[in-house]
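[09:14] KT: can someone run the structure on this one? pasting the chain below
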Amino acid sequence: MPGLSDPESRHRFGRMAVICSALLLGACSVTPKKGPTKVVTPVRDADIADLTRISQKLAELPAVSDERLKIDSACSTQLLDEFKSRYFSRWTTSVPLYDFEESRDFMRKEVNGGWYGTNKRKVSRKQLQGLLENCALKSFPSRSDTAIAAAPGHLRGLPTHMPFYEKRNDEPFDMLSYPQVKLNEPLRVLHTSKDGVWLFVETAYSNGWLEARDVALVDAELIDSWMQAPHLVMIQDYQAVSDGRGIGTYPAKIGTILPLAQSWDGWWEVRVASAGEGGKAEIRTSRILRAAAAPFPLAFNKENVALIGDQLLGQPYGWGEQYDLRDCSALLRDFFMPFGIWLPRASSDQIASVPRRVPLVELAALEKEKLIMSKSLPFLTLLFKPGHIMLYAGEDREGRPLAFHGSWSIRVQEGEGARKQIIGISAITTLAPGKELGLVPGSSLLEKVTEMGTVTERCSAAK
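[09:31] RB: done, structure tokens below
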């Protein structure tokens, strides 16, 4: 997904690479053809053995009872300070996160692509040219205004809801789908589309086009009061939060952060920002169930890891957070947010955020396995292969390493060819999910993982 330095982020560094982002195993690999073309059989919808053999409840995993499942207070404080600095950065500094010329060039390149639409036909040149004109790139960027997300929204690569697909039958991989913006997340507005319907914004982890109706401008006074207030974090997924006006109610995902106004028996009263006259933010209060949120941050312990992780397990995979779902990097980011641990949005940026990473690329599979189990901390160590990110989840009862991740598909052998086996959910699996089906040689996660890193290394690196 989009990110500052992620090589698979298509909206900055080329289309082909990002197709790999968040896809599992061989789903995004490009290999030269050898010999005659082999028939690829249709996708089959069935569960792999890992999903039934391994408990899909975190509290039942051996690692979740592990006493190592904690972070010392000094490190927690350091991680929280980093989180707040990054989360509020679009308010506290006007220095852009991304190169304007790069963003401008990317939008121009987008309209030259051979895209397919929902009707499975090529998007017309007229439509593409109209989108480019609506970007108003001659004056880009034209603004630098602090703002807030008045509603959950999705960043888009171009100012349109129309999906762009690489192939006729390439759903759900809409190449214009960027990360989802959470309710009341800090933003900076950089540009307005020609028709005024869209705003080009920066979040603390990405940039793109967001509908103007979902954005409200904030001033220094509001920013100061918002940042200084105690905060709650949503710990139940898709909980309803009213705009305080009796007009709109929004589903707030795990990790949504809101200022606390008051506490009542059975309720929290939180501050919410909505768009008012002139597009300026108006602050009201809204009540949410007490069980839906907790003081931010949550303590990182086995009870809370299970509380958050179990809600994220089994959810449908959502490329670019389409339909309010999650892909692999969104899954891990939302998992860590309630604990006050910052992760960037793209998988390669996430692993790069960890200092002193352990390289695995030159090791044989068995050597990798031993090193992962000896050097990893459960639910704190990231496992990375190009285009995919996972979280180490301890070992199964046979002593094999487990991973918590959002999975799209695997490639299994079918006669002389191969076929795609859809997983399509977030799950706990081994590093060879689908092995019983006969994986394409060299395509297991264990064989493809290239490096690992533990997020608490940020604390030791700063000493």
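[09:33] KT: thanks! The chain has three domains: 10-69+317-461, 94-221, 229-295.
[09:34] RB: yep, looked fine to me
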